[in-house]
Amino acid sequence: MKRVLLGMFGLLAVAAPVIWGQKAPQPKSQKEVEAIMAIQNAPDPDARIAAVENLLTKFADTEFKGFALYIATVSAQQKNDYEKMMLYAERTLEADPKSYPTMLIMATGLAQRTREFDLDKEEKLAKAEKLANQAGELLKTAQKPNPAMTDEQWAAAKKDFEGQQHEALGLVALGRKKYDVAITEMKAAVDASGDAANMVRLGQVYNMAGKPDEAIATLEKVMAMADVPQQIKQIAQAERARAVQIKGAKK
Fold it and tell me: Contact at 8 Å (CB) between 202 and 190?
């Protein structure tokens, strides 16, 4: 479920989707429908981005501009192309100022990329915090982005978005070295989404806060999960070893 949700929010599934709580867009021609479907059916992030650009070039007045740019944002995120991700995110918010998923992507990206000695560190962290909080407020009254979604699917999707908001706020607190706040937010992120990567981050924050016992307990849960990618388990194992060292140094 985490992050992409492309299939669930399919562009033309059953009916035109509500774009983050706004009026449902409508294609103006069969050619535009085909260009939109090309985005949905693209096999990989590069192909999706190319299909988005094709739509925007051929149909500059398309009502699907905001959602198409959001798809490009997510696709760039999948490619770990931070600069392109932020560029598409800014364009998305210009087209759709209420795109809370885009705000969450930007907030997380900004917080992750902010370094301790950046001259504009607090400016970037403050922007990330503002975006995360704005997204949270919009999410409270958000409608289903696709009428075809069941209530259960929408509830699960909202939980995932809530997890992303807490993750972003946790990263902001971590950037400010407010470890207690970071722990609270990361725990909320884990509770909302159950995401293993956030559990690893929570373990890392516990270590930074000098709480190795809590770190070990959290990281061992990740290592015991059956469906977690091996790369995440390896990071959890390495962080657990660090926690053991911290604990030993305290004796």
Answer: yes
